[in-house]
Fold this sequence. Notes:
Radius of gyration: 13 Å
Low-confidence stretches: none
Mean pLDDT: 93
Number of helices: 3
Shape: globular
Order of helices and strands: HHH
Strand content: under 5%
Amino acid sequence: xxxxxxxxxxxxxxTLWERLAEAVDRAGPQHERLFLAKFALxxxxxLADPGRVEQLIASAxxxxx
Length: 65
């Protein structure tokens, strides 16, 4: 899968991962699924590219086990 020209650096991705993990922790076990669903929909809307979102969903499902 090709990276966009403005792809985040490894350091930026690490920071985003930490922020997302902290937000999941703040949401708590009862709300983490709802938070992740809301985040996914907000990110999909920000991308404004349904085809790309479909590709990302497929990529996220790879190698979960």
